[in-house]
Design goal:
By secondary structure, the chain is α/β, with parallel strands linked by helices. It has helices at residues 13-20, 39-50, 63-73, 90-102, 119-125, 172-184, 238-252, 257-268, 272-293, 319-328, 355-369, and strands at 26-27, 85-88, 108-113, 129-134, 154-160, 188-192, 214-219, 232-235, 298-299, 308-309, 312-313, 331-332, 334-335, 347-350. It has a seven-stranded mixed sheet, with helices on both faces. Strands 10-14-13 form a three-stranded antiparallel sheet. β3, α5 and β4 (129-134) form a beta-alpha-beta unit.
Length: 373
């Protein structure tokens, strides 16, 4: 009945925990801002609908939005034009359209472990072979080129900074090292940078402008709390995007028209909303990390970006079993193994929640693990 490609595809471990959540549970499992989108974006969406902008649009997205995206990303590369942008249904579709454009049967793609849950399935669905490279706590979850297993079949590397689930952030030298090895081996780099504006120390360093064979993915979901609106974009050189646009068209025809007007307003308007949210996330991060580190058996490094803590634990129990115990106490967290085998003995806690809920959730976690040896 089912196509062979679905044989080894499992439902996301994040969604599995999400489905366990009851109405009164504290949800520290889902990577979704608890903020609402900025007021100007909400008003722009309403106006677009009322003004009749509800029809099909251009496959790569409306000119005005693509031009605005270019203006934002020119901070990394000055020669960008709208022909370097395709607007997509979030970062997920941007990455999937890109992977399906470039990856075929037997192509090996290096993916981070732990890494975001969509990477492995998307590579497999395209016929490729995901090959994991580890991220280690002692390196602040920053990948090292010595851990990359490159063979004659390796075609691409997926990188994610700031990282989901670890909050790790690659520095300028880390990016240079990855670019050098990609150049030496003629590899594509798929760079997932959807948390680019959520960096707590220093600044975000992008692969954009550092490498020509780059597929750059970004989104409005996390920065502007537009997760349910499904709007993002992919950027690459024009010859690449011509091919990506074909896959994009046969996936969704065109991005949703009224939501593009909202995204345009968000990116062109005042960015105080983004700065204010960053400071709130910083407070929540510090409360989360300090609280977890006070629980015997846990160790949590302070994440440098995104809105996740990825503590390790020493209890004699698997990540999934521990997450299930905590869920029974009405706190939802995500087992580290949802993001790959290297996530064992870790949990992911999203602090995209209120300070009150974070404090209460961490307190309950402490009670749950008190009797685990």
């Amino acid at each position: 009945m089912f196509a062979p490609r679905m044989k080894n595809i499992k439902m996301s471990g994040i969604r599995k925990m999400f489905d366990l959540a009851r109405g009164d549970a504290i949800h520290l499992g889902l990577g979704e801002p608890d903020f609402q989108p900025p007021e100007n974006a909400k008003n722009a969406l309403k106006k677009a609908v009322d003004d009749g902008y509800n029809k099909y649009g251009a496959t790569p997205g409306m000119h005005e939005l693509r031009d605005a995206i270019v203006e934002k990303e020119k901070r990394y590369r000055k020669d960008l034009t709208r022909d370097n942008v395709v607007v997509t249904a979030g970062g997920t579709e941007a990455l999937m359209a890109s992977i399906f454009t470039f990856i075929g049967e037997g192509d090996e793609v290096l993916i981070p472990d732990p890494g975001f849950v969509i990477y492995e399935p998307q590579v497999r669905l395209a016929g490729g072979k995901p090959v994991r490279y580890p991220l280690f706590e002692e390196n602040d979850f920053v990948p090292k080129i010595d851990d990359l297993k490159i063979t004659k079949k390796t075609k691409a590397i997926i990188v994610n900074s700031p990282s989901n689930p670890t909050g790790g952030v690659m520095g300028e030298e880390d990016i240079k090292a990855f670019v050098d090895i990609a150049e030496d081996n003629n590899l594509l780099i798929f760079s997932d940078e959807v948390y680019d504006e959520i960096v707590y120390e220093g600044k975000h360093h992008s692969f954009m402008g550092k490498y020509d064979n780059l597929i750059y993915v970004n989104s409005f979901s996390k920065i502007y709390a537009m997760t349910g609106w499904r709007i993002g974009y992919v950027m690459a050189k024009e010859e690449y995007l011509k091919e990506i646009s074909k896959m994009h068209y046969y996936t969704m025809a065109c991005p949703p028209t009224p939501i593009q007007y909202a995204a345009l307003e968000a990116i062109k308007g005042e960015q105080d909303y983004v700065k204010k949210n960053l400071e709130e996330y910083r407070k929540r991060r510090d409360i989360t990390v300090d609280g977890i580190n006070k629980i015997e058996g846990f160790r949590c490094r302070k994440p440098k970006g995104a809105f996740y803590a990825f503590p390790s634990f020493t209890f004699n129990i698997s990540s999934e079993a521990l997450a299930m115990k905590i869920a029974k106490a009405k706190v939802i967290v995500t087992p580290g193994t949802a993001f790959g085998p290297n996530g064992e003995k870790h949990l992911r806690l999203s602090y995209a929640n209120s300070i009150e809920n974070i404090k209460k959730g961490v307190e309950i976690i402490g009670k749950v693990v008190r009797d685990i040896k």
